[in-house]
Amino acid sequence: QRVQRVRKVKIKDPVVIGDHVIIDPGDDYTGMVREVLPRRNKISRMAAGDSRREQLLAANIDRVVPVFAVANPTPDWNMLDRMLGIAEWQDLPVSILINKMDLETGSVRDITSIYERIGYPVTYTSTETDLGKDAVSDLFGSGTSLLMGASGVGKSTLLNWLQPGLKLRTGEVSHVMGDGKHTTTHLQLVSLDGGGLVGDIPGVKEFKLWGIVPEDIPELFREFGPYIGQCKFSDCLHIHEPSCAIKEAVDAGDISDLRYQSYLRIRKSP
Predict the structure, then answer these.
(1) CA 227, CA 224: separation in Å to the nearest integer?
(2) Can you name the residues that pair with 42 across neighbouring β-strands?
(3) Phi first, then psi: what are they for 44, rounded to 5°?
(4) 31 pLDDT exceeds 90?
(5) 213 φψ region: left (φ > 0), alpha (ψ -120 to 50), beta (else)
(6) In whole angstroms, what separates CA 235 from the centre of its chain?
(7) pTM for the full model?
(8) Which of helix, strand or coil describes residue 63?
(9) First to last CA, the chain
(10) Residue 41, exposed/middle/buried by CB under 10 A (0-12, 13-18, 19+)?
(11) Is there a contact between 5 and 29 (Cβ–Cβ < 8 Å)?
(12) CB contact at 8 A, 209 and 178
């Protein structure tokens, strides 16, 4: 069976995984995207090296699945908070996935428990020991899930693990830097035999927010919610102002300092 090739006409936005489009099928197994239909949500970030440009990653997503490895590479919790922030901005469900649990030597659960306490489910996996395979299969079993994470965390390996026939390309982690090599070089949408679609995007080294002004950033941290509007000053930045309800909650241990430090970094450089 011949594969139909689809060309794109010049349109305002690029076509990304999850888009619904109108296609002119054409003749002789050729085709053309005529129109991208309105999106119910989108995942995007600031383009690397260009603060004036949006990089659109996916659209019409049902859940965001940030993927981090216990080690090789070391988890970047600030990046996780940025991913959670864009999911909050788009009002999307999130399920955090912690991979390579067979390499665990420290206390990663001490940190992930912070996220579980504020309502983010966490699934622990190892493709070496088959830990969490059923849970991940259930997670991906319906709708469209978007995997997000740095190179080397094992996104493609996880999909091959769930469905070996996919034969997605995987790579090793550099022993010098501990960074992953880019093995997924393009955005792809995978259909699983058990149901559900999974979007896999190239590994990211940074995830800067797009279209979000500093004043909106407190709303991206769901545990800040009960304290927003309770500060002495209505325009409180929650940084150095006196009688700040959020800072007081951090001091009392009701908001984790790890998350608060992420807030400060994102506030300084969204």
Answers:
(1) 6
(2) 59
(3) -145, 165
(4) no
(5) beta
(6) 30
(7) 0.86
(8) strand
(9) 48
(10) middle
(11) yes
(12) no
- Cβ neighbors of 59 (< 8 A, separation 6 or more) are 16, 17, 18, 19, 39, 40, 41, 42, 43
Both tokens of 234, joined, read: 């209505």
Instruction: Please say whether the beta carbons of 201 and 42 come within 8 A.
Output: no
Kindly list the distances between the CA atom of residue 201 and the CA atoms of 84, 135, 185, in Å, as whole numbers in the listed order: 16, 22, 8
Q: Kind of pairing, strands 197-200 and 144-148? A: parallel
For β-strands 30-36 and 54-59, DSSP reports them as unpaired
Alpha helices in 66-221 (DSSP H): 77-89, 108-117, 133-139, 155-162
Give the H/E segment covering residue 54: strand 54-59
User: Which pLDDT tens digit goes with each residue over 181-211?
Assistant: 444 446 788 999 888 999 988 767 778 898 8
Size (the chain), residues: 270
**Could you tell me if residue 243 is left (phi over 0), alpha (psi between -120 and 50 degrees) or otherwise beta?**
left
Question: In Å, how far from its chain's centre is CA 222?
Answer: 16
d(CA 240, CA 154) in angstroms, rounded, equals 40
| Segment 47-79, tens digit of pLDDT | 877 878 888 999 999 999 999 999 999 999 999
Q: Are 31 and 105 in contact (CB under 8 A)?
A: no
CB 184 within 8 A of CB 201: yes
Pairwise CA distance, residues 264 & 270, whole Å: 10
d(CA 112, CA 108): 6
Q: How far apart are CA 183 and CA 168, in angstroms?
A: 9
